Amino acid sequence: MWKRFWKFVARRLRVLGTIRGDQARVGISVSFGGPVDKPEFTPNFSFNDMTWTSNRELRQKNRDEAKNYKKALFDLAITLEGLRTVTGLPIIVYSAFRCPALNGSTAGSSKTSQHMKGEAADIGYDGMNTRPDRDELFNKILKHFVENGVSWGQLIKEEANRSYGKAFWIHLSLGEPYREAYRCNQVLEAKDGVYKFIKAIQHRR
Q1: Any idea what the Cα angle at residue 148 is, between residues 86 and 172, rounded to 5°?
Q2: What sign for the dihedral angle of Cα 46, 50, 55, 58?
Q3: What is the DSSP secondary structure assignment for residue 164, as one 8-state letter?
Q4: CATH class of 2-200
Q5: What are the beta bridge partners of residue 93?
Q6: Residue 146, CA distances (Å) to 5, 17, 51, 143 in order
Q7: How far apart are CA 98 and CA 93, in angstroms?
Q8: Which pLDDT tens digit goes with each residue over 141-198?
Q9: pLDDT tens digit string along 33-79?
Q10: What pTM was estimated for this model as a whole?
Q11: Which of 50, 105, 117, 124 could be stapled to 96 by a disulfide with Cβ–Cβ 3.0 to 4.6 Å?
Q12: Domain-by-domain residue ranges, the chain?
């Protein structure tokens, strides 16, 4: 099944990192039909993965509302699948789509978050428990994006104190066409919900 899937990807998508310069983007264009309408978007990211929440009261509501954003979620899943390959790390999603109710109940979330449109994901991998672990993944993603002229929205290395201890994760959002060009390729960091802008990267054309 997945062999047929990747043939579909090769035909229909601008695969992450294979097109350079102003043609490369994280926001990949795809028409509905095919894998986008199946439970498994990619081999490692399903619709349920992209809509999961630990909030049991809002879990079904979140998945119901996410159906209106399948195209963005599919593009995001393709992006993450590509990053698993280029980083060599088993990336997983902590949180992707958030309906407004869920977003409002999430500590430190923005009222204009791309999570609410299925255009952003908080990611990491099993065993990513320290700042160096997170920074390794962050640096690999950023290096790949810069060297291949890939556009993204925001790439944020985040950490926060939780009841169980310190949590580390990376926020990644889609760039064009989901986000205005002048607001793309932003690099930030955040600690306990306080954000610091680091830089915006201009790709060579």
Answers
A1: 65
A2: negative
A3: T
A4: alpha beta
A5: 123
A6: 27, 10, 29, 5
A7: 13
A8: 999 999 999 999 999 999 999 888 999 999 999 999 999 999 999 999 999 989 999 9
A9: 455 556 689 999 999 999 999 999 999 999 999 999 999 999 999 99
A10: 0.82
A11: 50
A12: 2-200
